[in-house]
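Final paragraph of the annual report: two paired records, presented back to back.
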Amino acid sequence: MGYYDNVVDLIGNTPLVRLRNVTAGIPATVLAKVEYFNPGGSVKDRIALRMVDAAEKAGLLAPGGTIVEPTSGNTGVGLALVAQLRGYRCVFVCPDKVSEDKQNVLRAYGAEVVVCPTAVAPEDPRSYYTVSDRLAREIPGAWKPDQYSNPNNPQSHYESTGPELWAQTEGKITHFVAGVGTGGTISGAGRYLKEVSNGRVRIVGADPEGSVYSGGTGRPYLVEGVGEDFWPQTYDRGVCDEIVKVSDKESFELTRRLAREEGLLVGGSCGMAAAAALRVARAAGPDALVVVLLPDTGRGYLSKIFNDDWMARYGFLTTDASGATVGDVLAGKGGRMPEMVHVHPSEPVRDAIDIMREYGVSQLPVLKAEPPVVTGEVAGSIAEKDLLDALFTGQAHLHDSIEKHMGPPLPMIGGGQPVGEAVALLEKSDAAVVLVDGKPAGVLTRQDLLGFVGARHP
C-alpha cells in the first residue's frame, strides 16, 4: 500500500511549475518552486523539522517540553506539526501586522498565540523578539528554536532545497531567486547551488523596501514574513550576488496576478520574490533558467491582499473609477500647504501650536520620521481642542513633548476610494490620512472636501 506514516514525512520534494502568463515577453524560462505543497503550507516546514530533530539530539528539548518562538505564522505551523507528533506544547509570538487568518491557523493546530506591536525596535520590551525571550525564560522546560540564529535553519536548505533544485533542473538552473527573511533559505540553498555549480548559478535575494538587506534602516512595510530590521546570524552575506528591492505595491499586484493568471494562490512574499525574478529574467538571455521559490500559500491572506476593500483602504486599488476619488481631492489642494503637515513625538507642544496656526489646521498627524513615511511610522495625532483643554487645565505645558499628549492616529482612507466614503468618514473625525500605494500621502479635512465640491460646482 502507498501511504505515509504521518504528515511530517510529506515535508520537502515540492514541485517546480513553469510561469507562463506573467512572463509574457520574457524569453528566459522562469520556474516556480511551489512550497505550499509542504503539509503546513510553507517552506518553513523544512526548518521546523530539522531544528526540532537537532534540539532533541542535543538534549535541549525533552518530553513534555514547550516550544517558544517569534514567528509570522509559517514557522509556527511547521513547528506545531512536528510538536503535535512528538507531544510538545507550543507558544508563538507574532507581530500585530500578521493577518488574523494566519494567527487562527496557528491556534487551529493547538498553539497558543501572543501578539505584539510591529513598529517598535527589536530591543523594546514589547517587541516580539523580546517577549519570546522572556517567555522562554519563564516557562519551565521551554526551548526557543530561534530561527534567526539557529544554524539548522540554513542547513536544512543546504541539505534539502538546494539538492532538489539541482536535481529537478538537471543542473541547468542559472539563477535562483528567493525572498530574504531570516536568510536561511537563500543562504542554505544558495550555498549548495554555488558549490555544486562551481559558482555558475547566480543567487538573487528579493527584499521589501525599508528592509536592511536592500540598504534600508528597517522601516516598516506591509508585506509579511520577509525582510528584517536587523542582520540575523542565519544570513550569510557572502552567498547573494544581488539584492532586488521590491515595493509593497509591486508585491501585492503580482501576488494577485499569480492567482488569477497562473492558478497559484500564494502569499505576498511570493509576489515579491516573483517580481524580483521577472526583473532578473528580463535581463537574462533566452537560455537562462530562473527558479524562484514561492514560500507559502495565499490562504492566510484572504482578508488582506485578496480582499478588494483592504487593498482599497490602503490605496492599492481604485474601487469606483466612475466618479471622483479621495486622491482627486488631495491633488486638488495644490500648493496651498505641504502634502503632509506634521509634528514628531519628541517636539514640544509649543511647536505643534505654531504649526497649527501657520497652516490653519486643527489636527496634526504625529510621525516618527520625515515624509515620505509608511503607515507603521504614524505614531498618533494631536487635536487642537484637546491640546487647548490640557493647557488651560494645567495638564499640559508648552515645553512638554508631544508624545505625552498625543491621541490615536487619524483614521486612514485609500486614495482610490470614492469621495462619498471620505464624507462619511469625516462625519466622525475632523481629518483623515490618505494612503496611496500603502503609504501616507497627505491629510484630508472637511474644509478640503468643501473646497473640492465648490470648485467642481461653482
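The closing record of the year follows.
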Amino acid sequence: MSRVFLASRNAKKLAEMERILRDHLPAVEVLGLDDVTPYDEPVEDQPTFEGNALLKARAGLAATGLPSLADDSGLCVDALNGMPGVLSARWAGPPKSDARNNELLLNQLADVPDDRRGAHFTCAVAFCHPTAGELVVEGRMPGHVIRETRGTGGFGYDVLFVADGDDDRTSAELSVEEKDAISHRGKALREIAPVVADVLTGL
C-alpha cells in the first residue's frame, strides 16, 4: 500500500483525491491532516493559488516525511476583477463560513446584470516528493454566478455557480461523478494523478 499525504481536513477533498489516484494506483492510501501528528500549518499568505498550494505541500512533506499534495482553489469573478480569488475561503472574514461568504458575494453582485456575472473556479495542486522534486498543475472550470443558492452537494460557492454548458444546474446539484468530470479540482487532480502514481511506484 502506497501512502501519500494531502494537506487537508476536508473529507470530500480527501475522498476525491483517493478516488482519482486509485484509477492509476489501486493500492494507495491518502492521509489527511487528522491522520498525522499535528504540526504548525503555514499561513496561506501567497498572492497566487500556486504559491499557497506549494507552501502547504512543502510544509506537509517537511512535517510528515511523506510524499505530499496540497491544493488551493477559489472563485474568480469577472465583475470583481478576479476576486475573491485566493481569499475565497475567508471572503467574509473570520471565522470561515460558506454561508456568510455566499451571502456577501450575492450582495456584491446584486446590481450586476446576468450577462456580466461570468466567473471561473481555479484549482492549483502541488506535489512535493523528497527525491522527485516539486510539480504544480492548474485546472479551471468556467461558468457564471446565479442569484440564489441551489443544491446540497459540494461546498463553498458550489451552491451559486453554474458551469458553462451544464443545463443551469449548480455545482452543488451535480452528482459526485458529474462534478469530478468537469470541476477545476477534478481536472487538476486527473492531470497530476498519473505523475504521482509513477513517482510512488518508482517508474
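The helical segments are 11-22, 49-64, 98-108, 176-182, 184-200. This concludes the annual technical report; the extension proposal builds directly on these records.
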